[in-house]
């Protein structure tokens, strides 16, 4: 089969073909060894004909361990042979308490590919492929295999799957059948079954950046508006005498500014009444009683315009307003424990809009109106119900609540965003990713509680947004660059890698590439991944559904694998049109209103 080495190029050896067609019929993509004293170099058959065989160098065996890359070329006198079982096992691995079965080798069908769990899952992973190439089934199979490993009990796993279309509920719902110690939790925006949990995010855990994303802020002048609103919402949440006095102070300052403005009396009255309509307390409302010398007036009566065009009770109202102004309230400290709703935030925004520095600034006021409209839209749609106020909670308590189901720990948490528009789905995922990242950063012992965040249809979330311009960072890019150190690992699943942030892709260490045919995606993968070869690109073009090319730090060499179908399957198959169309021939025709 293998004759003498004819000559050696930069990375390819040309070998005499002694067997002709008969000897090389099953050699393509097989691994061979160039063996010489104190040297074993691994190669792969890339091309052959009747006269010669081309073999590309991959790496070298040193002390029984495979090392990627070749520094010394094989000797011309080296013996060329097919790789043996021991050498092949070193490449594909074996199942143990630190590794698991990922799939079957497509080249060596009797061998299973068993990557190290640490090498594969302590680094970010990218799973790319066309629709129908087997991504969803592959992910489901991989997770099922992880928990089916007889050598280990993955009780402390925290796998969060952000499910764009509700595909994985069926695949992971019976994880406890593998082992009764395992549990699965389904969190959704549209609970249907008794075992479903409604997605809920405490509003009080949202920071400035989260609100900026949720309200779709577009410029930096909107950030101080949001920042002040958060501060006021925290203070007002206490409903103490001090917080009420602070509200009165803000209203009084706004009214005083209007009273001493150069506007017409009628215009002043309109603006004052507009403020009282949206920002009112017991002391400042239309029916508040104001005491004069021997008489009383309601707040609204004090603003009746006399025959001279002035407020009839201007002195009385001015004195009343001044009594409620206390500038020391501006230095009031925010409470350490607080809880408020989106509606409370909306009310705080009204007070922000009348605050000194905002009220007479036309640009800030216009920006605040935009935020107010967007907040109103959220409050009046189903998105608002996902942001809750259930009392004070910390990030630690909230994250813990996500992984608890019926007083047991869940290892797989499936978060279904099927019913949410892409705009808000992206915000929800970003907010939760930030909470996971912050939780992990605050751990006393770093990386002791790993979180794996699998993002189905990742191009919906990890985009080239203007977060860097507005906030100075993008949470996914931050996790991609820093998350590995804290145990926050991304699993990026997408059919359009070209739409995903370049920074995130550049930090991914392992890839499972299913069949891809779109030229832009193929070119993007080839250009963005420095460790991908043209050979891998060519291999993935001809893959069958359910097969993928695995390469990266978890794989000794790029490997073509066939992943078995998961059991049970995810809801990712095509519609069975023939079955849905087919009816019995003697069906009575229904009227138009009953056709569907």
Describe this entry's structure for a reader:
With 596 residues, the protein is an alpha/beta fold. It folds into three domains: 82 residues, Elongation Factor Tu (Ef-tu), domain 3, CATH 2.40.30; 277 residues, 3-Layer(aba) Sandwich (Rossmann fold); 175 residues, no CATH class. Helix content is 34%, strand content 19%. It contains 20 helices and 25 strands. β1 and β2 form a beta hairpin. α7 crosses α11 and α14 runs parallel beside α16. The two termini are 65 Å apart. The mean pLDDT is 90.
The description of the largest β-sheet is: 12 strands, mixed
Number of domains: 3
- Strand sequence of the main sheet, in spatial order? 9-8-25-24-23-10-22-21-11-20-12-13
CATH superfamily of the largest domain: P-loop containing nucleotide triphosphate hydrolases
CATH topology tier name of the largest domain:
Rossmann fold
Oligomer: single chain
Total beta strands = 25
Mean pLDDT: 90
Radius of gyration of CA atoms, rounded to a whole number:
33 Å
Distance between the termini: 65 Å
| Main structural class | alpha/beta
Helicity level, as a percent range? 25-40%
For the record, what CATH class of the largest domain applies?
A: Alpha Beta
Uncertain ranges:
none
Shape: elongated
Determine the strand fraction and express it as a percent band. 15-25%
The number of helical runs is 20
CATH architecture of the largest domain: 3-Layer(aba) Sandwich
Which terms would index this structure?
596 residues; alpha/beta; Elongation Factor Tu (Ef-tu), domain 3; Rossmann fold; 3 domains; 7-stranded antiparallel sheet; 25 strands
